Structures are given as C-alpha cells and as structure tokens.
Amino acid sequence: MSQFVASSPIHRFTDQAKRARPTQPNLTAPAHQTSGRRDLSRLPKAHLHLHFTGAMRPQTLIDLANEQGVRLPSHLLAIDPLKVPADGRGWFRFQRSYDSARHLVRSESAMRRIVREAVEDDAKEGSVRLEMQVDPTSYAPWVGGITPALEIILDEARQAWRDTGVEVGIIVAASRIRHPLDARILARLAAQYAGEGPGKVVGFGLSNDERVGTTSEFGAAFGIARRAGLASLPHGGELLGPESVRNVVTALNPARLGHGVRTTEDPDLLRRLIDEGVAFEVCPTSNVHLGVYQDFSHVPLPVFMKYGATVALGADDPLLFRSRLVHQYARARDTFGLSDQQIADLASQSINASLASSASKNQWHAHIQAWLNTPPYDGHND
Length: 382
Known about the structure:
By secondary structure, this protein is of the alpha/beta class. It has one domain: Metal-dependent hydrolases (TIM Barrel). The chain is built from 17 helices and nine strands. Strands 1-2-3-4-5 form a five-stranded parallel β-sheet, sandwiched between helices. Strands 6-7-8-9 form a four-stranded parallel β-sheet. Strand 6 (235-236), helix 10 (242-252) and strand 7 (256-259) form a beta-alpha-beta unit. Helix 8 (180-192) runs parallel beside helix 9 and helix 16 (340-353) packs antiparallel against helix 17. The longest helix is centred in the middle third of the chain and has 19 residues, at 146-164. It is globular. It starts with 14 loop residues before the first helix and ends in a 9-residue tail after the last helix. InterPro entries: A/AMP_deam_AS, A_deaminase_dom, Ado/ade_deaminase, Metal_Hydrolase.
C-alpha cells in the first residue's frame, strides 16, 4: 500500500453527522450452514495476504474517527463497490479510501488494536497462521520512528498468538511509490527482527501500484532481506500482465507472488513459476473490487488449479472490500462448484506456502484431514 498522505480527505464532523453514520457490518458473523457441506470456519487454513490498515474492523474505523473528531468520506462508510460498474472501480478509488483509513492510525493503542482484532478475527475463521504485511513508515510519525512502529506490531503479534493460538508472522513491505533507497532502510530494519517463530519478521514485500516505479531498482533491498533469511514476497501480476510478472520474478526472486492472477494469461510463464516453486496469493474479492475482473466467476482460480499451482487464498483488505478470508473459500466453493476435498486442498496449499515451521505445518495438515473426516452438516448437527 502507499505511504501516509497528510492531506487525506477527512474533516471535523457534527453530532448530527455522527448519528447519521450507517451501522458497520460484522465481517466474522457466522455464515449460514448448507446441508451436505462442512463448516469452513472450522477448516484450518493460513492467511498469507492481509495488509495492516486494511485488516481494521469497520467498527474500529468508526471508533477511531469518533475519538479524533473527524468526519469520514462517504466512500468509507457505505462501501459496496460491486454496485459500481467494473470500469468505474480501480486503484484510485481504493487508494483514496485506504489513505483515509490509515490517516486515523495515530497511536500505539490504535496499532495494537488493529493487530489484536485481526488475529482474533482470523481465529474465528479457522486460521492457524496469519502473515500480516505492514510498512512501518506509515505509522512512524505517531510512535517515534519506524523501529518503535515495527516493535509495537511484533509485540502485539506475540501476545495475540499466546491468547488465540494463531501463529502470526510479519512481512515488512516497501512501497513502489517511494525511493528504492527507502526500501533498503526497511530491509535492514526487517533483517534485525528476522525469525521463524510467532511475532517475528518472516518476509520482505513490495506493494502499492505496480504500474509505478522500476522493479529492478528494488533488487538491492530484496538482496539485503534475502541474506537475512527473509522470504521475498512482492506484489505483481494484478494491475499489469505477464510482462510485469517476469520483471518481478527476474529482479526479486519471489517465494510467493502477491496476487499474480494475470500470470494465467501466459501458460508458459505459469508453468515456469510452478516449476520454480512460486506460490500465488490469490485475493478474488479484491480483484473484483479493483476492476481487474468483472465478477468472481472470472477470477482464474480454476486455471491455477488445473495447472497444479500452489494457491493461498487471501482477503487483502477486509476493511475496504467488506470480505474476510473465510468468505473467499465460501465464494470459491459456490462459484466454481468445488468439493470439500478441493477446498481442503486449497487450505493445505496455504499452509504449505506459509513460512511456518515444518512441525506446525504437519500438525495443521493433520487437523485438515480431521476436518475432512467429520461428517458434513446435515441440517441438524452442530
């Protein structure tokens, strides 16, 4: 995501405006159970594509605005991008909303709340592993610098893991719209906190509008991170097609590709990445809301499955897309007619693509098999 924008469009609000704010949805409310299907919220899975501010609960956004006495723009209060024609969606609309939300994250307590609630929400959805992406530069002005900002997030991640059982790894991400030298600073910071266990930095990413900047100029930063044992986890292949993917793969040597859906437009490239062991973090609802695809049925998940790619479904930014991880699984199952075995395979792939320990992965795979061994919902059993 892009960096903090000081002129974010939020304003002082009146009591009348405050009362007029629409009720915000609970994105982890239990889903309706369908006879003959197993409960997806009980399926162990890894959530590998979630951005820090975008992980915020809608109600938390309202609470932070109330605390600071600001009025949020209408596009953050009543978001239903699917009612916007596909050619009217896109990056600008999304970025404007993200900047407005991030402008409210101005304290240690707000940062801790976002981490805590994101982990709790993933726990409710059956996630056993969360790898959250953050650029500490965005929050540094409010907590004394990029080092305190990262340490706050790591500390809360450890505490949330102890309380929920969800393992949390942090991905430090540079932004394409900043100078590549800034990325090197972040890579050195990430290297200081590298590790495998919960509450450690596990990877280094590159996010924001992939149409901006020259990918190869970020190669030095990724080299710093790689030498510290951090996985290369850049975005690519969402707003741009296969050529962008080639540039990312050549310059940054990714272990996983954030999104990467446009890779399917070049079968030879797709086969190459699969052979090289690159996994894909596919965020279907995000793709639709950004206008990459007209609707969920056009997301090329079946193509990835056909070619045998390793796929990890992700929610990307639930705050803005009003959809969390379990919804990606539910929509995929319903839209593409996937069996519970196929859904379990996707969950297993997400665990394989995670940066968790082998011991944790083995345990979670056993729990997935246990999920498959339980009888599906019959209209009566819990």
